[in-house]
Specification:
alpha+beta
Length: about 300
């Protein structure tokens, strides 16, 4: 990872962590080779509209690899943040080696800046490459079970939101590493905080954009009205007053989805959904929120560094 053009604290940072910094580029290259090989070997199970009767081992292996890749990339920001907080910052503060760096005519701001810039550059380039490799493999298995565009894993692993979370992890790691100054504890706390942000925004992301709604009379079937690629959010019955009722109320009393009790005054049904066009819009909105959080954490990290070490 060492480059001749790097100088001063940047060269030292790359030199110190060169083996670990090669992990993401190496993983991207290995993943690309594996995905290309499996895509060439694999055949869609319903190619030409005819289900194949022979075992499709390559396609099954590709699905397994993509499931694992989605899970790993979902936790990638936690690993990035833990590395920045622990080995890159807290360990030097804990051992006191940062004082040697400050004795070499560099400021604390430059010392911290070198750590952040190197980590952020590798995180951005590595996560972007891994996201591109993931999308290459995901495009072959898209639409099958657990590979919908809105599923947890494929959503984070194949879009710019992954880069945003990795940058947030770098910023949180820089802040927590200075606050705690204990390598293992800083790693654990950074991973926990980054994971909490992932969980919270994951629970809120489909509320960032308004859903689209389709309504119809009870006699009209739902099939065909909603795009197959859509993400269903809610569905149920509509009364004459416009009130929404859950979809099980009629079946509970009549054991039929089309036959509703008269006292409920049901006149039709409704369905809320997100179309596939909301994928990139949601990605951009969520990424903007994550980058705003990263900027706040990074500002706090540099303020803390200046306050403590001048």
């Amino acid at each position: 990872m060492s480059l001749p053009a790097l100088k001063g604290p940047y060269w030292v940072t790359v030199r110190q962590h060169r083996r670990v910094l090669w992990v993401l580029p190496s993983a991207a290259v290995a993943g690309l080779a594996a995905v290309v090989a499996l895509r060439v070997w694999a055949v869609d199970p319903d190619a030409d509209g005819v289900m194949t009767q022979t075992p499709n081992h390559a396609y099954s292996l590709l699905r397994i690899c993509m499931e694992w890749a989605g899970g790993v990339l979902l936790f990638l920001p936690l690993l990035v943040g833990a590395f920045v907080a622990g080995p890159m910052i807290a360990r030097e503060l804990e051992s006191g080696t940062w004082r040697l760096a400050l004795s070499q005519s560099i400021t604390a701001r430059a010392w911290l800046g070198a750590k952040v810039v190197v980590a952020a550059a590798v995180a951005v380039l590595g996560s972007a490459a891994l996201a591109g490799v993931y999308r290459l493999g995901w495009s072959r298995v898209y639409g099958s079970y657990q590979f919908h565009w809105a599923d947890r894993g494929p959503y984070e692993a194949g879009g710019p939101v992954l880069i945003g979370y990795c940058l947030l992890a770098v910023a949180v790691g820089a802040l927590v590493g200075q606050l705690i100054r204990r390598t293992l504890v800083a790693m654990a706390v950074t991973g926990l905080l980054t994971g909490l942000v992932l969980l919270c925004l994951g629970a809120l992301r489909w509320s960032l954009l308004s859903v689209e709604t389709i309504t119809g009379p009870l006699s009209e079937k739902l099939a065909g009205r909603i795009p197959r690629s859509a993400m269903l959010v809610d569905s149920g019955y509509l009364t004459a007053t416009g009130e929404r009722l859950p979809g099980y109320v009629c079946f509970q009393r009549t054991h039929s989805l089309q036959d509703c009790p008269v006292d409920l005054n049901v006149i039709g049904w409704y369905t809320d959904f997100h179309p596939i066009s909301h994928y990139w819009l949601t990605q951009l909105v969520e990424t903007s929120i994550v980058l705003a959080l990263a900027s706040a954490a990074l500002y706090a990290a540099f303020r803390l560094g200046r306050a403590r070490r001048g």
